Fold this sequence. Notes:
By secondary structure, the chain is an alpha+beta fold. It has one domain: 2-Layer Sandwich (Heat Shock Protein 90). Helices cover about 30% and strands about 20% of the residues. Strands 7-6-5-8-4-3-12-11 form an eight-stranded antiparallel beta sheet, with helices on both faces. It has a two-stranded antiparallel ribbon with strand order 1-2. The chain has a two-stranded antiparallel ribbon with strand order 9-10. A hairpin with a 2-residue loop joins strand 1 and strand 2. It is globular and about 60 Å long. Bound molecules: adenosine-5'-triphosphate (ATP) and magnesium ion.
Amino acid sequence: MATQMERGVPLSVLCPKFLHANSTSHTWPFSAIAELIDNAYDPDVSAKQFWIDKTVIKGQDCLTFVDNGNGLTYEAMLKMFSFGYSDKIAVNGLEPIGIYGNGFKSGSMRLGQDAIVFSKSEKASCVGMFSQSYLKEIGAEQIIVPIGVRDQHKASLKDILRYSPFKTQAELLTEIRAINSTCSTGTTGTRIIIWNLRKTSTGLTEFDFMKDCYDIQISSEVYEAINDKPQPERTTSSIPESEYSLRVRNNHTYYAMLTPCRGGTDQNTQLTVAQCTFQDA
Length: 281
Ligand SMILES: Nc1ncnc2c1ncn2[C@@H]1O[C@H](COP(=O)(O)OP(=O)(O)OP(=O)(O)O)[C@@H](O)[C@H]1O
Ligand SMILES: [Mg+2]
């Protein structure tokens, strides 16, 4: 490992394996999703709506999280992909939930190996990739995060096109445009796509997308594993829905209005499973 110095003193650096280690703080997959919802709700982003979908991109199951908040600039996305940089302040009496500068990293990497973030702020559109598979494939010794704005940052864009599911600039632009097609109001927002979703030891995704097409549920296999089976006194029907249903859980946790609705394109077979409309605080 090459030593980097600052003032002649060695810098601490992060090994890519830390991304997985850091994600293990979320034993329960819904707490990882909560990190992404909290970020959209926080006063710096101030989203009014938030959509959680399961979609298939190039044959891969993905989770998508879209908000119509303020979006991110290049600099803000770099902070989002870094650790410990949180400078949120209360706005109009709404106290921020996020304080540690870690939730996006731990939450997204708990849900899958890789994430790509498309964002539109008032100033610019940008795309960034936060990806364990990428770091592994290139043999990275430290965490590098390709971020690109339009035609600038050529090296980043090249790596995003090579290692993400999106292979052309036109495909990236389509995803950026999708932010506005999802959001009924506003022209800014952020779309996070997570792929290489975490799987159980039997090769199934830990979420059951088939049981209820308007919901994302924790599969019974994962539920039992997390709850340290066996629990003979607990039958499936006695488990509270909020423990395995994302739709019910969000309804309880965020006091949000959840409107299940279908949407999306033929190409990506998108299914909107939960739309949260945040109520004014
Ligand atoms: N959906 C989003 N839209 C715009 N900015 C976002 C979004 N999600 C995250 N960010 C930005 O990325 C930063 C990092 O998010 P992260 O969740 O890692 O940390 P945090 O929310 O500041 O603190 P905590 O670890 O307590 O959650 C946030 O401070 C916020 O500025
Ligand atoms: Mg956060």
